[in-house]
Write a structure and sequence with these properties.
CATH superfamily of the largest domain: Gcn5-related N-acetyltransferase (GNAT)
CATH class of the largest domain: Alpha Beta
Shape: globular
Helix content: 25-40%
Strand order of the largest sheet: 6-7-8-9-10-12-11
Structural class: alpha+beta
Bound molecules: coenzyme A
Distance between the termini: 53 Å
Largest sheet: 7 strands, mixed
Number of strands: 12
Length: 290
């Protein structure tokens, strides 16, 4: 019998109206979709956001075989806990056990075999060593990412990769507006996974600012990693670095959509919103002497 404590990763979701069938229970076919949602979160928890975590190595994971057993039904509004555990990594394949609970009731148990496949040939390809070690680290509760602080010559390539995707690609900010002279003198923060894939970034500018002041900017997290705490980690590291340099006040121009994110970390909005690169922004400030 599957036990929760044997699953180092649990994803929780709530049964929605459209997932319940004429029998007033979750339709059996939906459990593979539930597993897929849990798997996306599992990869994220392992620092291997999908698809970048795999495509970075020129590969992808394909489901090759599913087996599952239904033990009890779920009903509308049940909170389901979906446990996922990697049991074996072969040459190109990996075998995962999964199970679904609602409170103490075991509803479903299953097993899935994925095959790591080359993007170029669509043929099986060995699971990369760094993917194996990320999965192992997640299972053992060790860190799956690393935060680094440094100058542009050291971290520029990594910071640039994230900003290119988020600001230039996703937010359509013209490249000539994204890259400026501040990068060369700023302190950059980058979060990388164990394979060196950059997941998040931000920068702190002290030069050219009024005495005792610094500016934070270019905060970006890969879409697939948002909501995992990386933005908080970057912002905290930059604020700590400012404090260590005896900065008294940190300001930033927040995109208004991210205002609550900065508020949750102690920044306070000032004045009215204004347009910058065609996106509404607001000035925010944090007094570090408090
Ligand atoms: C804004 C951004 C940097 C936040 O990073 P993130 O990794 O998603 O944030 P975290 O997971 O660390 O979240 C920290 C907290 O802020 C909250 N939060 C994050 N983004 C938020 C948003 N846009 N609105 C409201 N709250 C938000 C989270 O819910 C979390 O709250 P909690 O601690 O109470 O659970 C990221 O979403 C991003 O890159 N967005 C696109 C680019 C962008 O807007 N950059 C900012 C330019 S000013």
């Amino acid at each position: 019998m599957a036990q929760r404590e044997d699953f180092p990763f649990i994803h929780r979701l709530r049964v929605r109206w459209q997932e319940v069938d004429a029998q007033k229970v979750v339709f059996n076919g939906h459990y593979l979709s539930y597993l897929d949602v849990a798997m996306s979160d599992y990869w994220r928890a392992a620092g291997l956001p999908y698809p970048e975590g795999m495509s970075h190595h020129g590969g992808d994971m394909y489901a090759r075989q599913h087996t599952l057993a239904y033990h009890a039904p779920a009903v509308l509004d049940d909170l389901l806990d979906i446990g996922v555990r990697c049991d074996h990594i072969g040459n190109s394949s990996m075998k995962l056990a999964w199970a679904v609970w609602s409170d103490h009731r075991l509803l479903v148990t299953g097993e899935v075999i994925y095959v790591h496949t080359s993007l170029a040939t669509r043929r099986p390809d060995p699971v990369p060593a760094s993917v194996r070690s990320q999965i192992q680290a997640q299972a053992e509760g060790r860190p799956v990412t690393q935060l680094r602080l440094g100058r542009w010559d050291e971290l520029g390539t990594a910071a640039k990769a994230v900003r290119e995707i988020v600001f230039v690609g996703e937010q359509k900010i013209p490249a000539h507006e994204e890259w400026d002279a501040d990068d060369a003198q700023a302190l950059h923060a980058v979060v990388l996974n164990g394979a060196g894939l950059a997941l998040a970034t931000g920068r702190l500018i002290t030069m050219g600012q009024p005495a005792g002041q610094a500016r934070i900017g270019r905060m970006a997290v890969l879409r697939s990693m948002r909501g995992s705490g990386l933005g908080r980690q970057i912002l905290q590291a930059l604020v700590d670095a400012a404090r260590a340099q005896d900065v008294r006040t940190v300001t930033l121009h927040a995109q208004t959509a991210a205002r609550r994110f900065y508020e949750s970390l102690g920044f306070i909005a000032e004045g009215d919103a204004f347009d910058e690169v065609d996106i509404p922004h607001i000035l925010m400030r944090q007094d570090l002497r408090r």
